[in-house]
Amino acid sequence: KQEVTQIPAALSVPEGENLVLNCSFTDSAIYNLQWFRQDPGKGLTSLLLIQSSQREQTSGRLNASLDKSSGRSTLYIAASQPGDSATYLCAVTPGRDDKIIFGKGTRLHILP
Amino acid sequence: DTAVSQTPKYLVTQMGNDKSIKCEQNLGHDTMYWYKQDSKKFLKIMFSYNNKELIINETVPNRFSPKSPDKAHLNLHINSLELGDSAVYFCASSHTGRGGVNEQFFGPGTRLTVL
User: Does A59 lie at the interface with B, CB-CB under 8 angstroms?
Assistant: First the structure.
């Protein structure tokens, strides 16, 4: 049974610092992995999707990596800003037409 | 141009009532989903429909009945609401057919409160 774990559950860092959020999954047979952002009381915004054949994806200050064999993904945020404060969710899709399995998220707070 | 929309955004109702939540996507996707986010903020799949056919049905009470009139709509009807049904319900859609990568796009959520 696939399980997704995110550590830490919460993180506070000063503005301007680079930071890494971690995600691990128990079954390396995945179709893709997605990182989402959720602001309080709001929906989910897709940040990056990495297909199983890829090792990383970049969008602006965000870089996500995928190591399927070790069951790990990281989300790197460069030069953090207060507007980056949100909950970041990692999710894996086991098969092409399959549901997403979510981690419990990392609640990030960027200190001005 | 809202990609995935849900109505209503908030729903407050009494225990025992029947209510519906509607979802529409204008992305041309072939698959739609309902997820539930509980009070601890954990998101879990409830149902998914591909081309109007049910393909995933997690262990959800049969008081919950999804209906997909067409590929762009997936509604959720809940009978005999219970206190434990209070949660935020998210609709999502993706393209899983040929050429699709199953990147899921989420609606803004419906916050259901059962009194």
Answer: no
